[in-house]
Amino acid sequence: MHQANKQSGIVLILAVLIIGAVLVTAVVFSNLVISQIQQSRLIDQSIASYYLAESGAERALYQTRRLQAVKSADCSKIVSGSTCQNSGNNYGFCSLTNDKIACITDNQGALAVGGGWNIIVNNEKDSTVNLNVGDSFQLDLFSPYQGGDFQTNVQSFLVTSTITGGAKLYAELTNLTWLVGGTINCPLDTFVPARPAISKGQINLDSQTGYSSTGYLTKLANDPEINPNCSYVLRLSNVLDGAEPGQFTVSIYNKAIDVDPTTDKLEIPSRLVIDSQATVGRSQQSVRIKSPIRPPLSGLYDFVLFSEQEVVKN
Questions:
Q1: How far apart are the first and last CA of the chain?
Q2: Which domain holds residue 167?
Q3: Is 212 helix (H, G, I), strand (E, B) or coil?
Q4: Which helix (H) or strand (E) segment is 13 a member of?
Q5: How many contiguous H segments (helices) and E segments (strands) does the chain have?
Q6: Is the same domain home to 255 and 285?
Q7: Is residue 289 helix, strand or coil?
Q8: Are the CB atoms for 105 and 113 separated by under 8 Å?
Q9: Based on the domain organization, do 185 and 141 belong to the same domain?
Q10: Band of the pLDDT at 160, cuts 50, 70, 90?
């Protein structure tokens, strides 16, 4: 009888251990199942939030390219006291302009899937482009929606590149204000003969200075220096002998000498950065678009071929 009681106690202990192991296994398995379900839901939410953010960015891009909309902060620069107001159909217009000037609505928008987005629009601080051999890049150093008398404050610019060992670019700096007849603050050149409105020259990128131009450029060749009251267009072409494909970055500054690269850097008024952020459930996604303010032109060439003979294209 005493031996039988000992065996009964062992069976009870084994039963408790087995039940405990089963319970632990069930809890671990259920946690794995719940985790997988949560992960699947989070993936679904992530996809939905990404496409919501993309929808917001596409709407802002549509407003920019089809409606020629400006960012909301620019309404007051165009007309004093003007603000960006939502028209009620997800499109905005600068007040005090009789709905003639569209603006990018940065308020929340939504689709029927149960989520929404927020839009934040700023100007680029640096404009970067990849140039293959023979490619060109044009950058307006002014806002196309501000009057000719508007002071751009631009006095110098800097070009940097990722090409090691140095590089060189062909550059053209066009004084657009001169081309349209000048203004009081940006009068036509008084030199005789008058200096051209388009300056041409070569920009050397020195590897010893971080693959940047050797200084903050205020002019090209012997032409007049940049006037902060004039509007300029900068065109860079990767066409010179020994040209290599690479990435080039342009920055503009409100000083010509003793430039502080942080505090003296200006926003590029003709280039926008559109950030669209959307949240669905626990997932948050964002999409960034960089675009010129005005719709880009397509189908145009920056050169023309003239020949007395037939031109055969292979």
A1: 106
A2: 126-266
A3: strand
A4: helix 2-66
A5: 3, 17
A6: no
A7: strand
A8: no
A9: yes
A10: confident
Q: Do 171 and 290 have their domain in common?
A: no
198 in any annotated domain: yes
136 and 74 in one domain?
Answer: no
Please classify residue 294 by burial: count the beta carbons closer than 10 Å to its beta carbon, then call 0-12 exposed, 13-18 middle and 19+ buried: middle
Range from 40-44, 93-97, 248-252, 256-260 that averages highest in pLDDT: 248-252
DSSP states along 111-147: -TTS-EEEEEEEEESSEEEEE-TT-EEEEESS-TTS-
One domain, residues 209 and 248: yes
The pLDDT score that the predictor gives to residue 5 is 57
pLDDT given for residue 173 in this prediction: 93
Give the count of domains, the chain: 2
Number of Cβ atoms within 10 Å of the Cβ of 160 = 18
Q: Could you give the count of Cα atoms lying within 13 Å of 194 in the half-sphere of its Cβ?
A: 9
Clarify whether residues 65 and 136 are in a common domain.
Answer: no
Amino acid making up residue 259 = V
Exposure of 48 by Cβ count < 10 A (0-12 exposed, 13-18 middle, 19+ buried)?
buried
Residues 145 and 79 both lie in one domain? no
